[in-house]
């Protein structure tokens, strides 16, 4: 997958399949071993940090009816196309109720594959 848009589509498709299977192994395959993420919302002062080894399966088990989608606002090529900075809105529909977040992802080419290096997720509410 050389096109970053295809990578993003594959990543979110993988999340949606994992919400059904409750198995996060394929999601982790998209991540760099150096992955770090930050998640926050308006009621906390300091974002929660997580890394490559976080328990994705436990997250998946919390949701019976969930679906993710992503609408990119900007995709910026960096380092001669070896990494991309992607900014947009992620919508998690949980029990048919949409929860939106502003997201920034850093994707980096590692051994010929696109890997998610960092993510920053801030819930809109």
Kindly provide the radius of gyration, computed on alpha-carbon positions and rounded to a whole number of angstroms: 14 Å
Compute the separation of the termini in Å.
34 Å
Q: What is the averaged pLDDT score?
A: 96
> What is the tally of helical segments?
3
Class from helix and strand fractions: alpha+beta
Biggest sheet: strands, sense, closure? 6 strands, mixed
Across the major sheet, the strand order is: 2-1-6-5-4-3
Percent in helix: 10-25%
Which residues sit in consecutive blocks of at least 5 with pLDDT less than 50? none
DSSP strand (E) fraction?
A: over 45%
Shape: globular
Number of beta strands: 6
Oligomer: single chain
Q: What's this entry about, in short?
A:
With 125 residues, the protein is an alpha+beta fold. It has helices at 4-21, 25-29, 56-61; strands spanning 31-40, 48-51, 66-78, 83-94, 97-110, 113-123.
